[in-house]
Amino acid sequence: MAISPEMITQAAIASFAQSDNPRLKQIMQSLVKHLHAFAQETHLTEAEWMAGIQFLTATGHKCDDVRQEFILLSDTLGLSMLLVAMHDGAQSGATEATVLGPFHTPDAPAMASGSDLSNSAPGEPLYVTGRVLSADGKALAHARIDVWQADAEGLYDVQRSELGGNRRARGVVESDAEGNFSFWSVLPEAYPVPTDGPVGQMLVANGRHPWRPAHIHFLIEAQGYQPLVTHIFREGDRYLDTDVVFGVRPSLVGKFVAHKKGNAPDGRVMTEDYWSMDYAFKLQPI
Ligand SMILES: [Fe+2]
Hints:
- The protein has 286 residues and is of the alpha+beta class.
- The protein has helices at 5-14, 22-42, 46-61, 69-76, 79-87, 198-205, and strands spanning 125-134, 144-149, 170-174, 180-186, 191-192, 211-212, 215-221, 228-234, 253-254, 256-259, 262-263, 269-270, 274-283.
- It folds into two domains: 1-44; 73-283, Sandwich (Protocatechuate 3,4-Dioxygenase, subunit A).
- It is built from six helices and 13 strands.
- The protein binds fe (ii) ion (FE2).
- Residues 101, 103, 150, 212, 215, 217 line the site of fe (ii) ion (FE2).
């Protein structure tokens, strides 16, 4: 009897039946089922699948300590944002989450609230003020606010080898007793995701642009609350509707206000024009 495609799929699914890890079994069986359905639906050829294997191999080869091409692949296929949306607790009034992205580092320098995190990053000065609150509006003291962003040239510090690992436009501050925090940085600009790897080639081959609208990343943690991973996007950015990683949510678009030089709200004397942005972050209880 000739073997049919359906028999192969059923055999592959059944090969996981004896797994003693029920969750792993469910994931693997579903993965095989959908992978086979994908091949059937597209009438995938062996040559095309070999090209796919070479693409995934190149994606792995592109990864190193500061470059994560697989996160970029997940982000640009919308999978990262889908998972965020599936598990987001924002229905209860908490701030909406978005993707972590590939540029977070675990070693951002701890700095006093009000500090200048820019460390000479190119860009117009930006004064950020914020509050960390519970979803029902209670101030959260001693929250840890981990911030990172691209500079005016659209680059993160980890993309600049000339910095020798020094951190720039990145840092961790803590909220005070009223949940308030602030820092100085630079105005973020829109940037293309890295296009010098296989994910960039995939975007070009499909006529997709690689741009993300300007934003600042926040990872906010407070005892008794779920960590919040989000961005605040710059109002008016031309890429807000076509973010290459599908990360924009209207509630995360912040007001960036332009100011003439002079005394800033924290008393700093500004000899050049600057910007400010204020946002209240609301965390979901555990
Ligand atoms: Fe980013």
